[in-house]
Design brief:
Blueprint: H1 6-25, H2 29-37, H3 40-43, H4 50-70, H5 73-93, H6 100-120, H7 124-133
């Protein structure tokens, strides 16, 4: 039989290739990467594959951040906000005692996402985001 979790694992592997291709050549592959990780087969990995789920969520957040940085206007701001939210969700599933490096990586990535988000805003929200990044 086929492992029911295999489609989710394969989507994650394909997403990484699309992400790297988009960084090198541009194009719409960043958006495709996000779509790959939002597929229902990925959601099935959350409980039985907690560590893989954390990696997937971390990569989804990074991809959303990259896409949000390259997208202007309200759509870009919304993507950045989603990246921050996804990083926070990832931290709730990553235990620093089980995987301290994965947890720390997600913390650093969250700080970077907040920094990018802060540079995109010009009102009082920017100062609040900078303060959150430093905590």
């Amino acid at each position: 039989g086929i492992d029911p979790l295999e489609p989710g694992r394969r989507r994650f592997d394909y997403m990484k290739m699309l992400y790297l291709k988009s960084l090198r050549y541009g194009g719409t592959d960043l958006a495709y990467s996000v779509d790959m990780l939002r597929h229902p087969s990925i959601a099935q990995l959350r409980l039985p594959e907690a560590e893989l789920w954390g990696k997937i969520q971390n990569n989804l957040s990074i991809t959303l951040q990259e896409l949000g940085s390259k997208t202007g206007g309200e759509k870009g701001t919304a993507l950045l906000a989603e990246a921050v939210s996804t990083f926070r969700d990832t931290l709730s599933t990553r235990d620093p005692r089980v995987n301290p490096i994965g947890w720390a990586t997600t913390q650093i990535n969250l700080g970077i996402a907040l920094q990018v988000q802060a540079t995109r805003t010009t009102d009082d929200t920017s100062a609040k985001l900078w303060a959150r990044r430093c905590v």
